[in-house]
Design a protein that fits this description.
heterodimer, A: about 325 residues, alpha/beta, Rossmann fold, eight-stranded mixed sheet, 9 helices, about 30% helix, about 25% strand, B: about 325 residues
Chain lengths: ~325, ~325
């Protein structure tokens, strides 16, 4: 984890706690991972496990009630946590990392033409000399995501959900960032549209070598893009490994249970579910956070397990795999 | 299907009128356009379709929330005719339960569990003395136990899965014959989804209920129902047993839908799936002939865009509305040919 030279993104012990009336909420609590340029990573977990907050913490899109925000985030070898807010905005956000937010198709401004909205980052970051050039680049981005350039001159309400989703994706891609966070990019869309968008993402990954971090609760769809898979539970990463090994044999008991609960279309398998509730992030249990719901819990689980490498680039946070 | 039909729907149409000025109007949104099917007791059927295919309107029509424009619905021998008030409506409400999509939105925030479940009993004149007993039974049935822990709680105190179970309890409290569940698990986490579906399945079997499960997620279908209908642009384009549909989809739209659904497998990341582009058509002016023809890869000019295909039955018990399967015509499988 100390070698920051070849990795695109290195996150070390990232914490983001929110202040609430009932006390601090540990939404992201000590997340460590690194990601190389190229392979796409998916982050899966139940709602409320902190996966969206993780993206926001890395992009430094913070609400006002931040209680603690610590850790180190290296992007292309520089510690971006050390940058001031204005420098971060100018040099990092949208230029090196961008985000397709959840329910992105509703995040367009209803009274501004789609083309202008997509082109805006270029003007803000002075990557285009004038509006005409920016619109030209927006047209290119539209072609890339498979939307007719006729739509540049339209308002968001004139586009269907799938088109708006693609427009937002075009906006995230337009400044040519190294890393794009996709927060549930297809969850509000129909199955066929979803597959079409996944095809677009696969094409971009292959042709432009862009790195994606896909955040989702839909495990079946996540496999469409994943090269690396990370499982998040109770604000922490519990498993991180190659997609190939993850989808066939996850190690962490939570990841196993989660995979067993995914309905499959073609194979006959008995489905499982996870009894109980995810832990409250207000007062998370000491020790392993999954212990309460874990079928293979033993005495040691009252202590917090380390998140460590078990070989083959596979990281697990569980006493069973130490 | 058995002779004892619980629900029988024939040529059902539900059209919404667009912008009305006196006698004039701009047309109709034909949200349900000629739907027929039968459902026997103890049967669960899934209706699969994309958003805007009219599946929720179909649910609302069956529930009597929207009056049908034409067509017939018969539930347990009683013909329904879009009752708006009185005894007829009360009968529908007591016999058809509704499980909504968003449990938090469907539950009144200022009512306790006891009042939520007590209200339908009160309205339908169940004596006070029996009410508590029934509430207890139904809570135990949906596994909100011990029931004493839940009865005084408010919806926000329950987790998503518990809220959805409460919605199911409310649908069951009057002992209906038919349950219409509109995307009952789409708002829940994957880990709870299965639990709720299994619960619904168990209740259906125990009480010999008929269940109509409406969803866009084909992958949960096989865990839930015997039959599946595929809905596209206001019509049921394919009807078959679930296993048959999954292994032998006939309609090009169903085939595309099945291709689009992924099973968790890392190999998916390396293939680009071939799915039809475009969007579902407008229901105000649907395409002529088969409504899927503008997106269909088997489009036959002069056939598909002229007449609407009737239901063909190339395999016993498997109906499909597609010209590829017309009488005397053997569909050519391009891949194997």
């Amino acid at each position: 984890m100390t070698d920051q030279s070849n990795g695109l993104l290195n996150v070390e012990d990232l914490k983001l706690h929110f202040r609430t009336r009932k006390g601090p909420v540990q939404a992201v609590d000590g997340v460590t991972f690194s990601l190389e340029r190229g392979p796409a990573m998916v982050v899966v977990g139940e709602s409320g496990c902190g996966k969206s907050t993780l993206a926001r913490a890395i992009l430094r899109l913070l609400p006002r009630n931040v209680h603690a925000y610590t850790g180190r985030v290296f992007l292309n070898g520089t510690d971006v946590m050390k940058l001031g807010e204005e420098r971060f905005r100018k040099q990092v956000r949208w230029v090196q990392m961008s985000l397709v937010a959840q329910a992105a198709m509703n995040s367009l401004n209803p009274v501004v033409k789609v083309g202008d909205q997509v082109a805006e980052p270029l003007l803000v970051h002075r990557k285009a000399a004038n509006r005409r050039e920016a619109l030209g680049r927006a047209a290119e981005a539209f072609r890339m995501v498979g939307v007719s350039t006729d739509f540049l001159e339209r308002y968001p309400f004139e586009l269907s959900g799938g088109m708006r989703q693609r427009a937002v994706l075009a906006m995230a891609l337009i400044a040519n960032p190294d890393l794009v966070f996709l927060d549930e990019p297809t969850s509000a869309l129909d199955v066929l549209t979803q597959t079409n968008i996944m095809n677009v993402l696969k094409g971009i990954k292959r042709d432009l070598g862009m790195t994606f971090i896909l955040i989702t609760h839909d495990i079946a769809t996540s496999s469409e893009l994943a090269d690396r898979a990370a499982v998040m539970y109770g604000g922490q990463l519990v498993e991180l490994c190659d997609a190939g090994t993850f989808f066939s044999e996850p190690l962490h008991p939570y990841a196993r249970k989660l995979m067993a609960s995914v309905p499959t279309l073609r194979e006959d398998k008995a489905l499982d579910f996870i009894p109980g509730q995810p832990p409250s992030l207000l007062n998370p249990p000491t020790g392993c956070r999954f212990a309460e719901r874990c079928p293979s819990r033993f005495e040691k689980c009252t202590e917090e397990p380390p998140f460590q490498d078990v070989g083959d680039g596979r990281w697990v946070k569980c006493w069973l795999h130490v | 299907m058995t002779d004892e039909a619980l629900l029988s729907v024939s040529e059902l149409r539900t059209w919404y009128e667009l912008r009305k000025w006196g006698f004039f109007h701009a047309g109709y949104v034909k949200a349900v356009d000629g739907v027929s099917f039968d459902l026997a007791r103890r049967e669960a059927v899934t209706i699969v379709g994309e958003s805007g295919s009219g599946k929720s309107t179909l649910a609302k029509t069956l529930l009597g929330l929207v009056p049908p424009t034409s067509g017939e619905m018969t539930i347990a021998g009683t013909k329904l005719d879009g009752e708006k008030k009185g005894k007829g409506l009360a009968w529908v409400r007591a016999n058809v339960g509704f499980v909504q999509q968003d449990p938090y939105g469907a539950l009144p925030p200022f009512m306790s569990v006891q009042r939520i479940l007590g209200e339908p009993l009160e309205i339908h004149g169940v004596p006070k003395t029996d009410q508590e007993q029934r509430i207890r039974e139904v809570l135990e049935e949906v596994r909100l136990i011990p029931y004493g822990d839940f009865i005084h709680k408010y919806p926000h105190m329950l987790s998503g899965g518990q809220q959805q179970r409460l919605v199911i309890a409310r649908a069951l409290v009057l002992e209906p014959k038919l349950i219409v569940a509109d995307e009952p698990v789409s708002m829940l986490d994957a880990s709870v989804r299965v639990e709720v579906l299994q619960l619904l399945r168990r209740i259906q079997e125990q009480h010999d209920l008929g269940v109509i499960y409406i969803t866009h997620d084909l992958s949960t279908v096989r865990y839930f129902s015997e039959f599946a209908f595929v809905m596209y642009a206001a019509k049921l384009v394919e009807k078959a047993e679930v296993k048959e549909l999954i292994h032998n989809p006939l309609h090009p739209y169903s085939q595309a839908l099945l291709t689009a659904i992924s099973d968790p497998d890392a190999a998916n990341a390396h293939i680009i799936k071939e799915v039809p582009g475009g969007e579902p058509p407008s229901l105000v002016r649907p395409p002529s002939g088969c409504r899927f023809h503008p997106r269909c890869k088997h489009f036959m000019e002069g056939v598909c865009d002229v007449d609407e295909p009737p239901a063909f039955q190339p395999v016993a018990g498997h109906e499909v509305e597609c010209w590829l399967y017309r009488e005397g015509e053997v569909p050519v499988d391009e891949e194997s040919a």
